[in-house]
Design a protein that fits this description.
CATH class: Alpha Beta
Number of helices: 1
Distance between the termini: 107 Å
Oligomer: single chain
Shape: rod-shaped
CATH architecture: 2-Layer Sandwich
Radius of gyration: 28 Å
Helix content: 25-40%
CATH topology: Pantoate--beta-alanine Ligase, Chain: A,domain 2
Length: about 130
Amino acid sequence: MKRGNSGFTLIETLIALAIFGIVLMAITSLMVTNTRMISENAQSSEAIGYAQELLENLREVPVDSLSPGSMSSTRTSSQGTVFTLTWIVTPNAPAPGRTSVAVAVTWNHKGSPRSYATQSIFTKVSS
């Protein structure tokens, strides 16, 4: 009398577990990479926001009142990241009557330096 074989053998179970482990390791690696990228992108977005906010604040100042040279300040995010904002005002650049303003934001992301820079040209509007 022949008995029916139901179930899995030990070899089949071990092979299935090995395949499952390999897939699980790949998924875990992707999740860790995604989490790291989300954190880095959030800090980059915050830096861009700080730079744009600084440019908007400088636009409210009359062009003749902008002090030429370099200045800096720091901002700390709610997560504790310290952003250093540096701006350089260059009058009569790139042409007479125009003022170039360059803004750079620097910060550290897990020990690695990051930066964002932008530049704008201000013109005095006469009435």
